[in-house]
Amino acid sequence: MGYKLVSKSLNFKYIVLLGFLVAPHGQAEEIRNPYLPTRAAGMGGAFTAVANDEGAIFTNPAGIARARKNRSRDFLHIAKFPNLTLGINSESRSFYEAFTSVKGDKNVEGILDTADTLGSKPFWIRASIFPVAIFEVQKGSPASFGVFSDTSSKIVIEKSSSDQTRIEVVSDQGAALGFAWTNNTNRINLGFQLRPTYRYAYERRIASGDLFNKKLLKDQLANDSNKSTGMGVDFGLLATMADFWYPTIGISILNLPTGCRKDYLNPFTEKREAVCGTIYNGDLGNKDALSTIDPTDIRIGTSIITRITRKINLRLALDAHNISLPIGGSNYGLTGIEASKILHAGAELFFGNPLLLSPISFRGGYSQGFVTLGASLNFKLFSLDFASYAADVSSTSSATEDRRYMASLSFGL
């Protein structure tokens, strides 16, 4: 997958292009959320009890049973390709302009003098594709299959230590195979999923001057990276009371433990702990990289649909993510995450039948202490989604907003 910028700096082009070919993981104070669907991002991430499209695969596998009407006899419920998502943060342009505007001897101090905000906010980009199909194996037993490549890139130059630059690169390629069960009314759903994944990761600090040395940077990213594989296992449940105008309860356990890292450095407590989840094994050049494990993520949510008029509806949702359980000296999930990062809330205004995806919808929400926004256009042959959300990238108790934008385009049936 490529990304091309008209630039006077070949080195900067190389960094951006490399970021899309590989991909970094979030900085220590940010909760890493790979595969974040655009629609879910617009709702503040409060999607555990909503999950009625292909985004269910990465939020609550039980939701693949709600991607169509219960009485539908169609074999194929959803087929989308390439399901392309692109993301960028608000500081990326400033970073790019500052990097390419420095004349003469290239130096990081010149970059920071050009753009004051770069000392506290990262350069961040994301690109992913996820062709997917949801179909009926037999009545009451839907299934899903998709392949994915999810990439994001982050570069952080901190003013307090401008001689060092943090580059965090994580790239995942794999497949998702899910199975679900539903009762006759489609009000109770169970889902189970397997995600075999190959991961390339580079998470290190480098001398800031190396940003201007393309060959050295390329060698470092090639030789000091992790190349590993893991098997993600997910479980989900959805239950709606009475009918679809009553509350829905959702429970999702992502990254069921396939193993534990005994000396994992928890970025929120800054202590080494035994953390369990999806383990990645292979050629680990950096065994302390956060991406060597995806910690178990327990999510609980509720949603309800209210009718405004005959054709206009409002969906409200509330979630708690990253609920940790300490058992037997091991942590199933990360401890020390502030409540403001655990709680998520969202609302979706949509038109038409609440059991089908609306041709047009608008969203708003709350995530990590910041407002989120989103909108969707769904037509018969293609769909377009947009979201604006923020991540807290502060290393202190005072939140620092990194505003991000994502857009998704897919064609299908």
Number of helices: 6
Choose one word for the global shape. Answer: globular
Quick one: how many beta strands? 21
Biggest sheet details: 16 strands, antiparallel
Query: What is the average of the pLDDT values?
Result: 85
Search tags:
mainly beta, 6 helices, disordered N terminus, five-stranded mixed sheet, single chain, 12% helix, globular, 16-stranded antiparallel sheet, 413 residues
Report on this model:
Helices cover about 10% and strands about 50% of the residues. The chain has a 16-stranded antiparallel sheet that branches. Strands 9, 10, 12, 15 and 16 form a five-stranded mixed sheet that branches. The longest helix is centred in the first third of the chain and has 12 residues. The two termini are about 25 Å apart.
Summarize the topology:
Blueprint: H1 10-21, H2 38-42, E1 76-89, H3 92-101, H4 108-114, E2 123-129, E3 132-138, E4 141-157, E5 164-182, E6 188-207, H5 214-223, E7 226-240, E8 248-254, E9 259-266, E10 271-279, E11 281-284, E12 293-295, E13 297-307, E14 312-323, E15 325-327, E16 330-332, H6 339-342, E17 343-351, E18 360-367, E19 370-378, E20 382-392, E21 401-412
Parallel strand pairs: 10-16
Antiparallel strand pairs: 1-2, 1-3, 1-21, 2-4, 3-4, 4-5, 5-6, 6-7, 7-8, 7-11, 8-13, 9-10, 10-12, 13-14, 14-17, 15-16, 17-18, 18-19, 19-20, 20-21
Short description:
The protein has 413 residues and is mainly beta. The chain has helices spanning 10-21, 38-42, 92-101, 108-114, 214-223, 339-342; strands at residues 76-89, 123-129, 132-138, 141-157, 164-182, 188-207, 226-240, 248-254, 259-266, 271-279, 281-284, 293-295, 297-307, 312-323, 325-327, 330-332, 343-351, 360-367, 370-378, 382-392, 401-412.
